[in-house]
Design a protein that fits this description.
mainly alpha, 6 helices
Amino acid sequence: MRPETLTEVLDRIRRGEPKVIALCEFLDEFYTRPEDRHGMIAEDPGFLDDDIYDAWIGGVGEHLARRWGLRVPAWTEDPRRFLDHPWFPENTKLLKPYLIAESPMSFRRRQIFTEAEPLRRATFPRPA
């Protein structure tokens, strides 16, 4: 079973599942169940005591809400969901200007710099 909420994503990570697998499986559920989307991000998932990933999850919750026209959950505004220094993916030194320009607001305001659609998956909804 794939995680159905961000809380389940963090629970799986706490039990040792790789972060990328837990989040990607959640995204597949999120994108294929539009009627359930708000409930999937509404609950505060808690923290991992990993500044970067805790900020990243805040960005995920906010970005998914904004991207799909949902109410932005209040938990995404917790100050612990924001970095006090810029973060870029590894091995992207030459891409920094591009990432600064392309990062969605939900990540950029947390000083997380990534591509324009950082949560894209094969299940990402596309116009008909």
